[in-house]
Description:
The complex is a heterodimer of chains A (484) and B (94). Chain A is 39% helix and 13% strand.
Amino acid sequence: MHTRTLAQLAGDLRARRVSATELARHFLARIERCDETLNAFITVTAEQALAQAAAADRRLAKGEATLLTGIPLAHKDIFCTAGVKTSCGSRMLENFVAPYDATVVERLQNAGAVMLGKTNMDEFAMGSSNETSFYGPVRNPWNHALVPGGSSGGSAAAVAARLAPAATGTDTGGSIRQPAALSGITGIKPTYGRVSRYGMIAFASSLDQAGVLTQSAEDAALLLEAMAGFDERDSTSLDEPVPRYSQIVGEPWDDITIGVPESFFDQGLDADNAKALRAALAELEKLGAKLKSIELPNIHLSVPAYYVVAPAEASSNLSRFDGVRFGHRAELATGEDLTTFYMRNRGEGFGAEVKRRILTGTYVLSAGYFDAYYLQAQKVRKLISDDFTRAFREVDFVAGPTTPSPAFGLGQKTSDPIEMYLNDIYTIGANLAGLPAMSMPCGFVRDLPVGLQLVAPPLAEAQLLKVGHHFQQATDWHQRVPAS
Amino acid sequence: MLRPEDIHRLCRLARLEITSAEVADVAAKLSSIVGLVDQLQAVATTDVTPMAHPLDRSQRLRSDTVTEVDQHELYQRNAPLVERDLYLVPKVIE
């Protein structure tokens, strides 16, 4: 039952081959059995799940089922869930119970979904391996000595191990696509503003975007259709109609041209990954796509530009965590002042990587440095964005690797932040330019999954999902499941 | 290379306490991050308009009406210390 896709499960539920309650129990039992090892969940909401499933069964019995009625899902612990602990992977929010639902959570619930729990993640989404979580690292279901990627590592591992049929995630520099690639599943980051950020704990507001981690592009279409769309509570929400992604994915595809930046295949990329990616591109060509070499002349500057813009925005966003209205509060000795109070609350509440990003952001925004760093990074961001605009005059998609290598070992990159940051070298460009991008499994290297990334022009999610679906009709990489 | 006194100044600005044992490691790692982002200095950007945001649209405005309702009891459930509906902090005025 757990290897069935969302589309299949929705069909099973409507035909009453399985009840929502049976489905919820099945996945809760899998979590119970496997998650002690994987650590993909921070909170399991069994009671709520069974209550929501019972409600779904009543609607199904009355023939009132909507898009996702009775479908179990997991939410990244960055989304506020009313009455349920929302920790963002941090000690700072260890006792935080969200007073309201994020728009993403609310919409999926309204569409009938059943929440299984909240997934583990890098602290405040700052990380590429899920090792910065206060709640411990997540293990890669394909090899427990390896990381699942991050920051949506819990969501990726949960879907890869089929502890949940699908999960939500967020992506600021690759946090959906990178773990999707390293865990062997499909992940899409929509256009900036496509999905509401209301109730999604902010990291870098001009880059953050919510999306999904699923078994297939077809499932991603189904879920995204329920999540996306205008929300007046998010001031940067796009007021554009949401296409029927779930129908469009199955339509025949038009003449498409896929741009391949040759610089993506230089010495930075694992040779075996390169081989798998070339084979996947050849498969797309066989399916009718035209391939064209392109150049993105400034893309190599995306990591340095990102590590100015993202920490600057983070240092500002995370200033709200002061230990007064919510969050961690430290013990204070008599006579210590208010500044010490703030410093200690934050010093104890945040982990090492979050502190590094806050300090980096503080540095680049401090007096005398603003023009040299922040303003310059925004100009480079423009150059990178213009490169994509120029490329999309000639091609419909930009394809390449999602990550430089397959999953790496736990602890292998934690001592050198730069080495960790370079893991996002292929994914960050889409965030800086605000473009939709998707990773899907396209092969295996040393028994580990490899992801192919496709980037599209603004609001072209439907086309992206369609290419993904057609590729997945012709290949079976996305159906491979780790042992156990 | 950032010095320990730079780290102390940044920590003060960011209201972030780090232990004296952590200072050297933070200084080294922050210096390597600054080294990474210093690559931007060599890029010619004289006539480039800075991109603050991925959406080339003007900010949407809402009407100037009160939409929030009073939910302080709900919100204060997450507060570490509350008395008579007030958030408590250490005494700062003698």
